[in-house]
Every structure is written in C-alpha cells, then in structure tokens.
Amino acid sequence: MFAELLLAATFQVGPFYEQRPADDYLAVRPFYAHEGDVDDVLWPVFTSHRDWWRFCFLMHYQSQDDGGWQFDFMPLWFNGHKPQRGEYAAEDYWGLFPIYGHHPHILLMYDIDFALWPVWTRYRMPRPSEGKWLTTNTVLFPFFSWRDDGAWSFWPFYGINHQRESDHQYALWPIVTWASYREDRDTAGEGSSWMVWPLVGRVDRERERQWLFIPPFFSWTEVRNRGWLGEPGVRLRCPWPIVDIEATSSRDRVSIFPLYEHVTLNSYAQESGGQVSSSVTRFGWKLVELYDDETRVFPFWTSRKDDSYFRLWPFWETETRKDGSSKSRLLGLFPMRWVPSVDRNWSKFWTFYEKESNPVCTYHSLLWGIIRWRTVK
Beta-strand (E) ranges in 250-343? Predict the structure, then answer.
C-alpha cells in the first residue's frame, strides 16, 4: 500500500471552485454549478435540466421529445402546446387564473376549462374500469356541481356521488351521510354505511363491520377475508389519534401518539414461497425509529445493519454502494442524506474532509481539496 500526494489547485480552490472534466462537473460556489445535464444558479433560485428549468419554485418550463412544452408561473399564468397523440388533435392552451383558462391535464383532471373561478369550471376524469370519461361542471364552486353520470350536488344541503362500485349521498353535509356498496374486487365488498356526525356511525359490509362513536375519535372495526373465513382482524381507536390498535392479517400496530408506535407488516413473498414480515418501532413520533435493518435518531444518528450507510450528525457521514464503492465526509451539516443539489452548491463550505473508495483505490480530499492524495489497495 502506498500513498500518492496530488496537488489539486488547478481543479479546486477551497470550497469556492471545483472542476472535474471527466465527470462533466464544474462549480463556482455558491453562484453556479454544473453536473451532466443539470445547471444551478444560486440554488435554489434557479435550476435547469436537459428538458426543463425552474425559477424560485414559481416559474417552471418543460419540453417533451414529441414537441410538447409547458410554461407555468403558478398560480397566475400557464401556457403550452400539446402535440397530437393518437386520436387527440394537437392544441395550444393558456390560462390567466382566475379569469380564464384551458389546460389539458392537471393532477387527475383532463381538459380543464374555467372562467372567473370559482364562478364556472368544467373538467373530465377517466374511468378506466368502465372504459369511459366523466365530465364534471361546477358553478360557484363548491356550491353547485353536476356530472354526466347523474351525480350532482347542492352543497351543503344535498348531494349524490356515483363511484365505481358505490353510491354516496349527504344531507346538510357533514351532519348526515350514507352510502351503498356493490361487490368489488379491491375493497370491503357489498353492504352499506351511514353516519350522523358528530354522534354515531355504522359500516356494515361483507368484509368489514365498524361502529363509530363521536367520529372520528372512537371506533371499533372487524375486518375479515372473503367469505368471513378465519378469525377477524380488529382495529380500535380510543380516542383517535392518541390510541390506535390494529391486528389484521396484513398488519399489527400499536400506537400511543406521539410517544410510541410499533408496526409489523405481513406480506407474501413469491420468491421464498411463504409469509414474510417487517417491523418498525418508533418513539417520539418519528424522532427515534428502529427498523429491522436500520436505526434512526433524527437527525443525529442513522445506521444500517449491513454497514451500507452511517451518519453521526453533524460530524460524519458514509455510504457504501452496491458495486463496492463508498463515499465518506466530515462534516455533514445538512440533516438529510445526500441531496445532489445541496452537494453541488453548498455542502463543500462545511465539508473539510472527503473520502471516495472503489475496489482499486481510495481518494482523499482535505481542506476543500487543497490537499489530495490517493491510497492504492
């Protein structure tokens, strides 16, 4: 083993300047940083990528390989171009909120139109299981709305909503609500539910029985598999969110918020041909978390049992990758694991020593790279 002293002044000057041509990396901190397809200017003020850029998390532009693009200055202005896709024609769109606008897709809503919002809005939502689209209109949102499947609402006096396998209604929302359910594949099956808030509620479905008292604070639930085979799973909230106890085929949970929580998750692993489980114990909500393979004491301590990651905040942080390479540094003031944008622009100011290892050798950097050396294994 031998060490080779490397003078790095040409490529790095303290924490302010760093250049690695082989990695397409350049940083003039804290003003500018470039790495591959990413450029930062006074991050987080401005960041650009190969096909998008963002300014102060308010302005955003993104282009697509098929010629589509979009610009947003949220929530006031947006405009863009949607190219032709299949049977849908190309279109240009824009909006000046809340005056007028048309947008092809926001969240789960498609072909959104609005004028003097909340005076009038119209949008579509897909129903993939039924192979159709549903159009919703609202006037003086949220007071008046109607949908082309017969659902409508005169809030808060009365409303009816049709979902995939259920019908929901309310009167003087949220005081009286009730619903009917048809048999389906994913939820609790056929049945009904009702609630008179804030007094009492009842759920009576094929695979779920539940009573609620002063909802949502007190409830008792029984959950069974299809056909009510075997012992039921149970859940007790008394009162929620302080005491929450659950014992089902998929999860066991005891929570006394915010002091203590223990969760065991049960699942079936096809590779091993049987049931597998994982667990976590928490103290002080999420300040202390004990996983099967990791221990966390936020933000001071994180360690994995396979030694792939360790952090003693704010002094030391090290990570070992799957290919056998590793990275370590002193100090690590940022309370989260390595964040690329923070590393490019800010972390060098407080990182006095770094070490990067691969199966062949280890590179050391001291005092912001002013002194570097390599250790060959």
Answer: 251-256, 260-269, 274-283, 288-291, 294-297, 301-304, 309-312, 316-320, 326-330
Bridge partners, 96 (sequence order): 77, 100
Contact 370, 364 (CB under 8 A): no
Give one word for 307, left, alpha or beta, with left for phi > 0 and alpha for psi -120 to 50.
Answer: left
Which two tokens mark 231? 């012992």
Nearest alpha carbon to residue 317 among 305, 340, 333, 339:
333
Taking only Cα atoms into account, the Rg of the chain, rounded to an integer number of angstroms, comes to: 28
Q: For residues 278 and 90, what is the distance between their CA atoms, to the nearest angstrom?
A: 49
pLDDT tens profile 176-191: 999 999 987 777 889 9
pLDDT digit string, tens, across residues 129-147: 777 899 999 999 999 999 9
AA letter at 81: H
Give the CA distances from residue 123 to residues 73, 191, 197, 279, 358, in Å, rounded to whole numbers and listed in that order. 21, 31, 31, 43, 54
C-alpha to C-alpha distance for 68 and 189, rounded to whole angstroms: 43
- Token pair in block for residue 168: 């929901």
Same domain? For 223 and 256 the reply is: no
Global confidence as pTM: 0.73
Mean pLDDT over each residue of the chain, to the nearest integer? 89
Give yes or no: residues 212 and 237 share one domain. yes
Concatenating the DSSP letter of every residue in 98-136 gives TTEEEEEEETTEEEEEEETTTTEEEEEEEETTTTEEEEE
pLDDT digits (tens, 9 = 90+) for 85-129: 877 789 999 999 999 999 999 888 999 999 999 999 999 998 877
Q: How far apart are the first and last CA of the chain?
A: 6
State how far the Cα of 267 lies from the Cα of 275, in Å rounded to an integer. Answer: 6
Question: What is the span of the domain harbouring residue 358?
Answer: 1-30+293-377
Residue 323 and residue 365 share a domain: yes
Mean pLDDT of 192-217: 95
